[in-house]
Each structure stands twice: as C-alpha cells, then as structure tokens.
C-alpha cells in the first residue's frame, strides 16, 4: 500500500511526551477556524460582485452560455459570435452546467440567474480554501493545512480567477483537482471496504469533474500520471515490489475510470479534451506495460540489485520517449506548456505573455510586490524534497505524499513560467508548499522535549511571526477588490444600449476584438459581433489591417461579414502597438520599443502640452519660424511634422523624433510616422488626413457617424457610398452638397470599400416624408473596381420631394444563421461546414430582415493569411506581416429558394470541390516560407439582390 502518515498512539495509554498537543481542542477548533477562513475568503472574492456587470470581459460570454445551460442543459450553439454565422460552443459544458444546477437550487429562494452566477466564483474560492486545508492536513499536518488555507484566503494569484465577475474554468478545475488528490490519498490509506469504495468513487468523480470545467484540465491528468509513474518506478528500483503491486491495484483502475468516463463525456461536449485524454491513455498504457515488465520481467532480466533495476527502467523509458517522439513529433515537449505563442495574435494577448519575476512578485505578495509567499514556498518545497530523498536513499522508504507534492509543485511552477495566465494554476501547489513550511516549524515545536509552557511560548511566537501575513494580505486584497470597477465604461454602456434599442436584431457590429463579448451580451448590446475574445481570431488581423493602415491598403471586404456598425474607442491608443503590428504596419521590434500613440492630455500653456509619460510638447518660435519641440528629460527633438487641426497649419520638422504631432484645442497627440494617417486616427480622433487623395471623403461615405460619446464613436458601415456629386452646369462640372429638384447631368463618385461593384442597378427614389412618390432607374450594369474607382455619369430627373435616395442594387449576402448547421444530421462548425472534396446532406436554418423569393445558397471559401514583408524569418525581431483575406470560391448549392415569415429552412445535398489546398499551394509557390495561413473558412452564404443606400439627403 502507498505510504501515508499515521499518527502513533502513545504506548501503554500514557500521555504523549508532546504535551503541547491540541488533540482534543483541534477536533473542534480547527474545523471552525477553517470555515471562518473560508468565509473571509468568500467575502474578499464577493466584494467585486457589487459591480453592475462583470470585471472580466470573457465572463460576459460565459454568462450567456450559462443562461443557455439553464434552458437547454447541454448548449451546442451560440448565434451571436462570428457574425453572421454563430459558433459551436467549444468550451467544456461542465463549466456552465454546474452553476446552472446551483441556480436551479437557489432560484427556489428567489435568487436570480445573475446573482447565482456572480456568487459561483467566490463559492469556488470558498471550497478551494476548505480543500487546500484538508489536503495540507493529509500531506503534512493540521498546521500546514491551516496556513495553506490562510494563504489562499488572501492570495492575489488565487483571487484572480475566483473573484465575482471572473467565471473562467481554471478556478473550478483547481478546486476539483485539490479534492481529487485529497480523496486519492484517503482512498489509498483506507482498509475498510466501504470507506475505500467511497473514497475511490469520490476520487473518480472529482477527477472527472475537473475535466468538465476547463480545456486546460489535462494538467491534472499529467500531474496524477507523473506522480504514479515516478512512484512505481522509484518504488520498484528500491525493491518494494509489494508496495508497487498495492499501488497498481488501487491507482490504475481508478485512473483508467477517470479517462474512460471523461472520454465518454466528450461525445456530448461536457468534456472537450478528448485528444488529450487519448494521449494520457497512451502514456498510461506505456506505464502499464512498463509496470508489467517491472513486476514480471524478473524471469528474463536481472533484477538482482538496485543498479540493475534502474538500468532496466532507464532503457525502457528511453525507448518509450523515443517512440513517443516519433509518434507525436517535436510538439511532444510543448504539450505541457499549453500557452506557447503560436500566432501573432497570441503574441499580443497580455495574459499569454511569458511570465516575469515581476509578475510572480505581484501575484504572490503579501502587500504590494514583495513575492514573499512564493519565496517561502521555495523553502517549503525544499524541505519536502530533502525529506523525500533522505527517506528514499537512507531507508528505501518512498513517501507518496512527499513525491506527489514534488510533482505537483514542479509541474505547476514549470507551467507558471510559460505564461502569465498560469500564475493562478500554480497557486494550489505554491500555497500548499507555503503551508508545509509553516507546518514544519510547528511540528518542530510539537516534537520538542521541553515542558508544555515552553512549547506553548514557542508556538505563540511562531503565530506572532506569521499571523501578520494573512492579516495584512487579506486587508490588502480586500481593499483592492473593493475598488475594482466594471470593465464596461459609461460611454460603452451608453453606446451599447443605443445599439440594442436602435438597430435590427440581425445587425452585426464590430470593434477591436476585446469588446466583442460586450456587443454580444444580453446585458448590453445583444447584437451579433464579427470578432470577440474567443471566436473569429483570424478576423483580428483583418480588423487590424483596416485600423492601422490608410487608403487602398486599408480596404477590406467587411461586406462579406455583413457588417453594419463599426465602433472605435479613442482609449485604444494604448493598444495601438498590438493593432499596428497585427495590421502589418510595423515590425515586431517597433511594436516592442516604440509607442505608436503618445497622448499629451494636459495643456500647460499656450501651445504647450504634457504627457503622463513625462514628455512635453510645445510649439515655439525659432528664427521667425514655428517649430514643434518634443522634450523628454535632457533630450529634445522635432517631430516629422506638426499639424494644428484648429488652423490647418502644417509645421515641418527635422524628424529626429519619428512622429507626427496633431494639435487639438485642449490636447495634442504624437503618432508614430508609419501609422500617423491610419484609419484609427481618422475614426477615433477625427484627423482628416490621408496619404491618398480624396480617401478621407471616401471613408466617411462608407463609415457614417451615427452615435458619439466623449471617447467612443459608432459608425454605420455600407460598402458603397457616394462621397462626391458633380453636376454639369454652364459648360463645366460643379460640385454640389445636396440633390435638388430638376433635370441635369451628374457625376456620381462612388466609394466601393473593399468590394467591387458588379452588374449593379442604381435607382433614384423620391419621398415626401415617408411616402414614396417616385422611383426610377438611373443606371444599369454598373461596374466599379474598388481599387481604381471612376465616377459614374448619369441623367437625373428629380421631382419635387422632401428627400431623395440613391439606392444601389446588386447581388450580396443576406440573412443570419439562427441554428447550428448540420451535415448528415450532426452539428458542424458554421464557418467550416466542409473541407476539400467533402459532401453530405446539409441542414440550415436562417433568419432574414424581409422575405425573399429568389435566394441562392452558396458555400463560400475564404483564406486568411499573412505575408511576411520584412525580416528573415517569422521569429525575426524585424519581421512584419501583411494580412490578406481572399475569397477564393463560391460553390452553388441551391437557387430559387423562398423564405416564409423571414425564415428559411434548407435541407439538401451539398458537394464542395477541391479548391482550398490548391490555392494554398499557389500562395506557397508565390511567397515561399513568407506566407502563413491563419484562417480557412467554408461558410454557407445566402445571396440575393441586395439594396444599399449610397446617398440620402
């Protein structure tokens, strides 16, 4: 059987020599104390629940799926993401089913859905504190458990994923993993059949539950498997064959049950890590074969001493690793990292950044950034390691509790250093090691031979030494939690409320992807979003291209997304390094070393401004000329140019400070020269400057401002718009601002943004109020290349009316999916319904703004890719990547389709040709290793004659 701690009773019924023994008091005191600690921890985490919404943006999405789970139990499809297609729910559904069950229980007492949802993360924190106490007690002592619980109560690292308003899966995962380890050790030590069955069942149940709540849950499988592997190997090497057999009898069937049940739950989506479970099973199978060899190979191999047994294990393990490498490939050694920055998007995500010592100091501090808890945990784990190796080498006694702690801590800290987000995951092991350190000190006191009063004094001194840690830590974290604010600013709340109340339910909006979940949230915009924090990550590059560039370089086909509204937040100046890099405007080095936008938000004098970064800008007179000067400490320089937007004056500069400065009435902004005329500057700051003639006017015809707050602008998007009208008058062409009644020849300057006009018809409609009084076709078979636009000459006959519309009609995408598509009766990915050469029976349900009598259904293939324009390799610091989105094929599935009550249900055979891979091969031929494919889409698209209002006035 696995070695576990068993307290020895004093012989002959005599009192233990350790008179400083709270054995009677502990029975009641410690459980009560840990409940109090858990309640305090709950209150610290629940403090953020006082906000109106949620602090963490991703939580808005989790709330929506949780609500679906309340209605459906096993939600499959989320219609508001990746507009207009929706997305299959890819998160493990246990993350939503568990709080939904909690809601079903508490709703009987009048608690609403959002109330339960906000309480769920603090409850996870509460039970985690209870669990860490019990596990610390099992692995070491009561004191270790209490101090681990005290540390978890206030730990910033643990708080970050268990506070109200942050409902991600890693919090419940860690909770279930802690209980799984706890029940595992109770299961090992139980000799009574009923207890052993109970704890074995709880071990399996909690092990399965940890798989149901987080896609990173394979970490738990690897910790358990790593512990088991090392235990049987080390125990075998030291000749403890009976202990190996006992462990195999207990652990192997239970672990296999976790894998099998977990894998069965992948079929309904409750667990999503089927591939990792299969990999864990393959490793487990290898361990089983090694175990069989160790137990029964003595007939054929030399097991006579420790050296020979070690040699057998070493050779077999090396062969196993070699086979695994040949089977899996180089990714074998990155399977545990889980957060390697594999794409340019992930490079810019803050929580996926590589962990630094400053991060560790901040997350594992008592107050500020002292890192004290982590540093003390290193001492704690060193003690565990020393004891393990001492017992193993000197007494051939393999302590399973110590070995488990070493594996748990080692893998946790390894993963912690790969990405910031895993600082939380390591909290279980780190806080447990901290508790073991303090528990070891109390154990030393308890084992002293001094009289009770002396030992009590030592214990009091220890308490006085360490008790400031949880007191100061809890006070610091609680104060921080109390001042936490909603992520949603008042301007976003106002804008999204406007969007919900003034737009069609099928409208699509986008912004920088960070805010997609707000747009989709039923608490806020409740509209479809083109991109968000977890979906359409290939589109992030295309949005960035639009925002970071200018002119034709910035034009992308937003109409293929059926985009209706684009929201631009001026505060995204702080994220513009990432946006500019993803949009291909700058290199990786420029992203890391040069701020793209530097605001001077404090006016300190006439034409003098101050930046929060300690930089000043001022316009001064030198030799009778105006000069813009940047002053940073003892250095100063001149921008490329200074543009006074009040007067239109342009002041050239030497450019030794490679920025363009825009001067507004009360502030100034310095913008890196490569992005100084970017669309972001036009739409967020209103800078009317472009490197291409007339592009500002074109852009404004496609993006019309419909809602503005102090820092947030909402634009209605149309792919086609008139930016200039000229009429022929007195032998020349004259620009006009508004159509008026009469008959005349006109030139229409149409901006086709990112999409060509093909075989279009243009109609003139005249209205008196809302009544249509005239409609006439003024142009047919209109074609405009969006990269080389030419004006369209037409004859106009305008009757007397109060307003006029010019409407362009051409084939375009219409409708949104309202249910998940199916192929051969099974739900499929809405944006990748088929691959090359695939076919099957396709089922769709879609909603429309109006009824259509002649719809065509197509499968549209799109490839999104990057071309490296600078740098020798993708990892070159000087690398820059230009995003592209190519629609490469339309495959007709059906035509002549008709809607009923603005709904269409389709079921029929569909075939998709081999077009994607050949196109990718052509890209590789053209660009070589400079091309990276970032998205492949095969989407069901309904095409109809679609109307675009290109002028109204």
Number of helices: 27
The overall strand count is 32
Mean pLDDT over all positions:
91
Helix content range: 40-55%
Distance between the termini: 86 Å
Radius of gyration: 33 Å
The amount of beta strand, in percent, is: 15-25%
Unreliable segments (pLDDT under 50, ≥5 consecutive)?
A: 1-20, 335-340
Tell me the major beta sheet.
6 strands, antiparallel
Write down the overall geometry: globular
What is the SS-derived class? alpha+beta
Strand order within the widest sheet? 22-21-24-32-29-30
List its traits.
27 helices; six-stranded antiparallel beta sheet; 953 residues; alpha+beta; single chain; five-stranded mixed beta sheet; globular
Structure write-up:
With 953 residues, the chain is an alpha+beta fold. Helices cover 41% and strands 24% of the residues. The protein is built from 27 helices and 32 strands. The strands form 7 sheets. It has a 6-stranded antiparallel sheet with strand order 22-21-24-32-29-30. Strand 8 (608-610) and strand 9 form a beta hairpin. The radius of gyration is 33 Å and the shape is globular. Residues 1-20 and 335-340 have low confidence and may be disordered.
